[in-house]
C-alpha cells in the first residue's frame, strides 16, 4: 500500500461512461473531452477498448497522440490479441498503461467464462506477463471482485503482482458492495496480498444500489489510492462513481480523509457541462455538486442564513467547482475580441473562420435575446461549429400550428448529400409535422424513442435545447439541437440524430 495521501483519479468517462446507452461519442467528441479531462487534472484517462471496433481503436490512438500529461490507458481482455491491439493504440502516448481484466467470482468463472479457478489464475498471469513485455505499466482488474471469494481474490492478486502488474483494481462490477464491507475487503487485501505495499490498489464502483460514491470513498479511506470514476457518474446501467462527488467529498472533508487529488476543482462544472453538451443529456437539476439546484436556496430561513454567511447552508462554494452563475458575458454591441476571449475562457480552440461563424450566430441571437450568457455561447459553438451536419443539413423551416381548423404543417428545405430539396408535411403538431417532412426528404422512417426539451438559461427568450433518441432496426443514436425557436431546435436535434445514425458501427462488448 502506498503510504502517501495522494489519491489518483482514473477517469473512465470515455470507456465505461461511453459504453452506456445514449452516451456514444464520435472520435472528435472524444478528443475534445480528453483535452478537457487533461485540463481538469485527471491522472489517468481510460481512452477506450481498442479491440472492440476499428472506431474505438482509432479514437484511443487519437487521444494517445493528443494529451501529454495524463497516462492513457487502453482496456483489454486477458487475451494476447486484445493486449497487442491495445498496445498498438496507445503506443504513441507519452505515458501508457495497459488495463487488462478477468472475472474472478465463482458465478462469472463458471457461467460466463466456463473456466476453472486454476485456469483463471493462469490466464490472468499470462495476460499480465504479456502486457509487461510491452514495456508499459500494467493494471489488472479482478472483474466482479466484490462477489469473489476473498481467499481466491488474494491468490489472483498475488499471481498478477508477481507477474509485474503495479496497479490492482478491485471492481464492484454490479454495485453489490456495502461501504463498510467494501472498506474491510480493501483492508484485508492490503494486509494479506504479497507485495501489496509495492503496488497501488484501485477501486471501480458501479451505482446499482446508489452506493458507488460511498463505496469509493470508504475504499480510499481504507487505503486504496486510485479511484475510478466518470464525469456526472455516467456508465453502465445506473452508472459509475461520479468524479465530482468523489473529489469534492475528499476536498470538503479534509479532516476526515486527509487525502488529496490533482483535480483542478474549478474545472469540474465546465467539464460536466461539456460532457452534457456532447452526449446531449442535460445535467439533472438535483444532481449533487453540479445540478442547477445544488447552490439554490428557496426557503426563507435558508435565504436569511445565506445572506448573513454563506457557510450556514453551503459546505462548498459554486466558484470552487467553476460555476460562476448567470454572468452576462456579451451583448449586441460586443466585438470579435470579446468573443475570442470568452471562447478561450470556455476552453475551446477555434480557427478564425469558426470564430466568425460563432460571432455571426451570437449577433443574430443578440437581436432576439437580451443577455447572452456563457451557456448560450457554448451551445452555439457546439451547434454551429462542432456539430456541423454532414449528410443532411437544415436550411429553412416554416411551420403552421395553433388551435385553428387547419392541421399543423411544416414546409422544410434541407440539403441532402449536397442537394437542396424541399418538402411539405402535416402532423399531429408542429414537431410531428417537421419530423414527417424530414423523413420524407431523406427517405427514412426512424422511430422516435425519446424527446427532451430544456431551456439553457432562464427567461422566455432562452435558447431551447432539445435531445432526441431515434432507433432504426438495432441501431440507436442521440441527437441534439439548440435554437431560440423550439421547433427549430427539435428539427435540428432530429437531423443530428439521423446524421449520427448513418455512421454507427458494430462493437463487441468488453467481456470475455
Ligand atoms: O465494472 C467493471 O468491472 C469494469 C472492469 C472492466 C474494470 O468496468
Ligand atoms: Zn465498470
Mean pLDDT: 91
Largest sheet: 8 strands, parallel, barrel
Strand order of the largest sheet: 1-2-3-4-5-6-7-8
The CATH topology of the largest domain comes to TIM Barrel
Cofactor: Mn(2+)
Domain Pyruvate carboxyltransferase: 7-269
Region (Regulatory domain): 393-512
EC number: 2.3.3.13
What layout of secondary structure does this protein have?
Layout: E1 8-11, H1 13-17, H2 27-40, E2 44-48, H3 54-66, E3 71-77, H4 80-90, E4 96-103, H5 106-113, H6 117-132, E5 137-143, H7 150-162, E6 167-172, H8 179-192, E7 200-205, H9 212-222, E8 226-229, H10 243-252, H11 254-257, H12 268-279, H13 300-308, E9 328-330, H14 336-345, H15 352-368, E10 372-373, H16 374-386, E11 392-400, E12 409-416, E13 419-426, H17 430-442, E14 447-455, E15 464-472, E16 475-483, H18 486-501
Parallel strand pairs: 1-2, 1-8, 2-3, 3-4, 4-5, 5-6, 6-7, 7-8
Antiparallel strand pairs: 9-10, 11-12, 12-13, 14-15, 15-16
The structure holds 3-methyl-2-oxobutanoic acid and zinc ion.
Give a structural overview:
α2 (27-40) packs parallel to α3 (54-66), α15 (352-368) crosses α16 (374-386) and α17 (430-442) runs parallel beside α18. This protein has 512 residues and is α/β, with parallel strands linked by helices. It is built from 18 helices and 16 strands. It has four domains: 8-279, TIM Barrel, CATH 3.20.20.70; 297-321, no CATH class; 328-385; 392-502, Double Stranded RNA Binding Domain (2-Layer Sandwich). The protein is globular. It has helices at 13-17, 27-40, 54-66, 80-90, 106-113, 117-132, 150-162, 179-192, 212-222, 243-252, 254-257, 268-279, 300-308, 336-345, 352-368, 374-386, 430-442, 486-501, and strands spanning 8-11, 44-48, 71-77, 96-103, 137-143, 167-172, 200-205, 226-229, 328-330, 372-373, 392-400, 409-416, 419-426, 447-455, 464-472, 475-483. Strands 1-2-3-4-5-6-7-8 form an eight-stranded parallel barrel, surrounded by seven helices. The structure holds 3-methyl-2-oxobutanoic acid and zinc ion. The site of 3-methyl-2-oxobutanoic acid has 9 residues, from β5 and β6. Mn(2+) binds at residues 16, 204, 206, 240.
Amino acid at each position: 500500500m502506498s503510504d502517501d495521501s495522494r489519491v489518483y483519479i482514473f477517469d473512465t468517462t470515455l470507456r465505461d461512461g461511453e459504453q452506456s446507452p445514449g452516451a456514444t461519442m464520435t472520435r472528435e467528441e472524444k478528443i475534445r473531452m480528453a483535452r478537457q479531462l487533461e485540463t481538469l487534472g485527471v491522472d489517468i484517462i481510460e481512452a477506450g477498448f481498442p479491440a472492440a471496433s476499428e472506431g474505438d481503436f482509432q479514437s484511443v490512438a487519437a487521444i494517445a497522440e493528443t494529451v501529454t500529461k495524463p497516462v492513457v490507458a487502453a482496456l483489454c481482455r486477458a487475451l494476447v490479441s486484445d493486449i497487442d491491439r491495445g498496445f498498438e493504440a496507445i503506443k504513441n502516448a507519452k505515458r501508457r498503461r495497459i488495463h487488462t481484466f478477468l472475472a474472478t467470482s465463482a458465478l462469472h468463472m463458471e457461467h460466463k467464462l466456463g473456466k476453472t479457478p486454476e485456469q483463471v489464475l493462469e490466464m490472468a498471469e499470462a495476460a499480465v506477463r504479456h502486457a509487461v513485455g510491452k514495456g508499459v505499466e500494467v493494471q489488472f482488474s479482478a472483474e466482479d471482485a466484490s462477489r469473489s471469494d476473498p481467499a481466491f481474490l488474494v491468490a489472483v492478486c498475488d499471481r498478477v503482482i508477481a507477474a509485474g502488474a503495479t496497479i490492482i483494481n478491485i471492481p464492484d462490477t454490479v454495485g453489490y458492495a456495502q461501504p463498510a464491507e467494501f472498506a474491510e475487503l480493501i483492508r484485508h487485501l492490503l494486509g494479506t496480498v504479497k507485495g501489496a505495499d509495492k503496488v497501488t490498489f484501485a477501486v471501480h464502483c458501479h451505482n446499482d444500489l446508489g452506493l458507488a460514491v460511498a463505496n469509493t470513498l470508504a475504499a480510499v479511506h481504507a487505503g486504496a489510492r486510485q479511484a475510478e470514476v466518470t464525469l456526472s457518474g455516467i456508465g453502465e446501467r445506473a452508472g459509475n462513481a461520479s468524479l465530482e462527488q468523489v473529489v469534492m467529498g475528499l476536498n470538503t472533508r479534509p479532516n476526515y480523509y486527509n487525502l488529496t487529488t490533482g483535480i483542478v476543482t474549478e474545472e469540474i462544472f465546465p467539464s460536466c457541462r461539456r460532457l452534457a453538451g456532447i452526449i446531449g443529456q442535460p445535467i439533472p437539476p438535483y444532481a449533487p455538486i453540479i445540478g442547477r439546484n445544488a447552490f439554490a436556496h428557496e426557503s426563507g430561513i435558508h435565504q436569511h442564513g445565506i445572506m448573513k454567511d454563506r457557510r450556514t447552508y453551503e459546505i462548498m462554494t459554486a466558484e470552487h467547482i467553476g460555476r460562476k452563475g448567470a454572468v452576462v458575458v456579451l451583448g449586441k454591441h460586443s466585438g470579435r475580441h470579446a468573443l475570442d476571449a470568452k471562447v478561450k475562457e470556455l476552453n475551446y480552440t477555434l480557427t478564425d473562420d469558426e470564430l466568425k461563424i460563432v460571432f455571426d450566430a451570437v449577433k443574430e441571437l443578440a437581436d432576439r435575446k437580451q443577455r447572452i450568457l456563457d451557456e448560450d455561447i457554448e451551445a452555439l459553438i457546439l451547434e454551429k461549429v462542432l456539430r456541423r451536419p454532414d449528410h443532411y443539413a437544415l436550411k429553412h423551416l416554416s411551420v403552421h400550428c395553433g388551435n385553428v381548423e387547419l392541421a399543423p404543417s411544416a414546409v422544410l428545405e434541407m440539403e441532402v448529400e449536397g442537394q437542396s430539396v424541399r418538402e411539405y408535411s402535416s402532423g399531429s403538431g408542429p414537431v410531428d409535422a417537421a419530423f414527417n417532412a424530414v423523413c420524407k426528404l431523406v427517405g427514412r422512417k426512424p422511430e422516435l424513442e425519446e424527446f427532451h426539451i430544456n431551456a439553457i438559461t432562464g427567461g422566455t427568450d432562452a435558447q431551447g435545447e432539445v435531445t432526441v433518441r431515434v432507433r432504426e432496426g438495432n441501431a440507436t443514436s442521440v441527437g441534439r439541437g439548440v435554437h431560440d425557436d423550439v421547433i427549430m431546435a427539435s428539427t435540428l436535434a432530429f437531423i443530428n440524430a439521423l446524421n449520427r445514425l448513418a455512421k454507427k458501427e458494430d462493437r463487441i462488448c468488453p467481456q470475455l
